[in-house]
Every structure is written in C-alpha cells, then in structure tokens.
Amino acid sequence: MDTRRVRSYALAGLAAAVAWTAVYASLARLARWITYALAGLPPGTRAASAVEFFVFEAPKVLMLLVLVVFGVGIVRSFFTPERTRRMLAGRRESAGNVLAALLGTVTPFCSCSAVPLFIGFVTAGVPLGVTFSFLVSAPMVNEVALVLLFGLLGWKVAALYMSMGLLVAIVSGWTIGRLKLERFVEPWVFGVQSATAGEPDGPSSWADRLRAGAAAVRDIVGRVWPYVLAGIAVGAGIHGYVPENFMASLMGKGVWWAVPLAVLIGIPMYSNAAGIIPVVQALLAKGAALGTVLAFMMAVIGLSLPETIILRNVLRPQLLAVFLGVVGTGILLVGYAFNAVF
User: Fold this and answer.
1) Can you name the residues that pair with 200 across neighbouring β-strands?
2) Low pLDDT (below 70) residues in the chain
3) Quick check: is 69 in a domain?
C-alpha cells in the first residue's frame, strides 16, 4: 500500500472517528428530546421511561456494534479455519484448552458451525476436550456479547462475563478430556478425511483486512440488528412496566432456586447475544441478581436447544449428556458464586 493511500485511509478513519464520537455523545440529549418534546410524553410515566430507554439504547448499541465488529473483523482475518486447526492440533491438552477458549472469542463460528468444526478439529488431531473448549467459547464469549454488555452494562460486567465464560469453557473442556469419552463420538466422524490441504490462509494485505472488517459489519450487523432492536424493545417494556419487587422476588439473591430455574428457562430459548443482552440489562435494573442473570444469559447462548440438536449428529447421547451436564454445572456455579459475592 503506497504512502498516498495510507494517508487517505488515515484521514478517512480520523474523520469517521470524530463523527462517531460526536453522535455518540449526543444520544442521551436526543433521546430526551424525542421522548418529551417530540412525542410529548409526560415525565415520570411508565410509557416515557420505556420510550426513552429504547430511543437511547438502540442507536447506542448499534453504533458500538459497528465499531467493534469492524475491529474484530480485521482481527478475524488472521484466524481462518485452517489456521485455527493448525494452532490447536498437537497442543498439550491443558494449554490447548486455554488456547482454544481464547481463539473461540475471536473466530467467526457459532453453533451452526458445530458439526463441520467438530469433524475438522477431530480429524486434524485436536483432542476432544480441547475441541469442546472451543465449541463452548465460540458462541458464548463472542464480540457481539462483549460489545453489547459493554454498551449496556459497562466494562466491569463485560470483563466479568468474559472471564467467567472463558473459565467455563476451559474447565468444561478439560473435564471432558479427562473422562476419555472418545468412544461416544459417532463412529462415522473418525472416517471423514481432513480436507485442509491447500486451504487459503486469508487476506495478506492491510487493504484486504480493512475490506474484511467492512464485510464483517455487513454480515454480522446486517444479520443481528433485528435481534438487537427486538431485545431492546423487550428490555424497554421490562424497564417501564415490570415492578422492581416482582423481579427481585423471582430472580433475587434470596431465592435459592433462582439460578437453576434461570438455566432451565434459558436452555430451550432460541436467541443470541444480540437479542438477550438488552433483556439482561432490564432484568438487572428491576432487581434481579447479577449471578442469576449471568447464568440465564450463559444458558441461552452456550446451551441452546438448536446447538444441542446439531451436536447430536456427531455425539452419542452419553457424550452429549456429559457435555450438557458439565457446562450446565459450570454455569450454575458461576451464578451462585456471583450472587454470593455481589
């Protein structure tokens, strides 16, 4: 890339950053103006509270999502499926669990990719436990979840969720690896040949990587924005209309069965981070305990029914039950631990 092109990219990026910052800083004032001046809603009413919540959070979350997904799209250009397999194959299992969980946070895979990923990793020599660390981390601890948590609840909750999600992924994979359950993988999986030779390693120039970032915005934001708006709309309804004492009694710290109930409710739900995190914010604002809400969110994202059905294609029921039990136990412990501390 020549000097002139680099300079033009830098100037365009600086102008975009200044414009983004100016718009982001004005969102709170804009939300109040739309709610009270334009819509004419009386201050202090439930409707006004719900509308102001939605008008403020929707553009804020979408703007944060665009910014972070663009950056992560560039990072992802360094981690193609072939390169990821090469990094994980042959690793010692304990180190492999940690690396697999970390790679899961930046690689573009979700539960829909579970079967081809599982086959590719196993045939490339990746240990079973390491593969599971990756499969837990990839949907649960992804950039969409982290940026939405950061935008809605702040960096402390986002960092907390990331650390706990990685811990669940690492420990779950390590535990499954120690149990030596390879015999419960469907036999046909081991007969599939690894088709990795000659696969491209992804973009090589920074111009290509910038285009990869823009493509990630078109793909990910273009795909999840309806879920974002739907989730924020549900959150706005909870924020404006659900009494605080109701959520505190149902999902508060003093209710011992709140955490397992939250996990059981979360597992059959079909949602992703974009749709569930605004609901999480509203639940917390209404008095739900942090640990209970985090357990609910982890169950929705990491133990979803669609992923379970997909994984059944490559796992026998015994191994699938172990996987669900180990991950579910980790999520329960996270919920109880944070309810005890916070």
Assistant:
1) none
2) 1-3, 6, 72, 76, 79-93, 107-116, 124, 191-204, 220, 224, 242-249, 269-274, 306, 310
3) yes
Helix ranges (H only) for 105-221 are 114-123, 128-140, 143-153, 155-178, 187-190, 206-216
* Residue 199, domain member (yes or no): no
In sign, the C-alpha dihedral spanning 72, 74, 78, 84 is positive
Q: Is the alpha carbon torsion for 253, 160, 145, 330 positive or negative?
A: negative
Give the tens place of pLDDT for each residue, 166-203: 998 899 899 998 888 888 888 877 766 444 444 455 55
Domain limits for position 238:
15-189+207-342
pTM above 0.85, yes or no: no
Rounded distance between C-alpha atoms, residue 294 and residue 298, angstroms? 6
Tell me if 5 is assigned to some domain.
no
| Contact yes or no for 85/125 (Cβ under 8 A) | no
Dump pLDDT digits (tens) for 24-47: 889 889 999 999 998 889 988 888
Question: In the structure encoding, which two tokens stand for residue 50, read together?
Answer: 């719900």
Domain count for the chain = 1
The values of phi and psi at residue 315, to 5°, are: -120, 140
Q: What are phi and psi of 259, to 5 degrees?
A: -65, -55
- CA 234 to chain CA centroid, Å, is 19
CA distance 67 to 8: 19
| Any domain includes 83 | yes
